[in-house]
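pinning this so it doesn't scroll away 📌
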Amino acid sequence: MEDDPFSHLVKNLSASTFHVMLGKLEKFIRDTGGDLALRLS
């Protein structure tokens, strides 16, 4: 089962998808955080 190429592909895919989502979330937080800081100051 360890050598199953399909499960290996799914694992890599979900890992990269998670990484991309994390990057988008981080950018979103940075962008909105910057807007918030501008409004508060």
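📌 and the second one:
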Amino acid sequence: MRHCSTAPRHRIIGAGALISSGKRFLTRSLVVGAPAKVVRELTEDEEQSVLDNSSIYVKRIDSYNSLEHI
């Protein structure tokens, strides 16, 4: 993502998406490509999956922080 780009909550940004400076996307968007563009709206199940997956990382933060750095 470039400087001044925003990707607030409830969006999925595809790996390798090139988001130009200052670009904004609507809520519940699937964003992919180079240049990045909205390809469709997320389903309610996909949106919930994003929230569920991120909460798993938050719950496991202590175990991640205790890992030895290489």
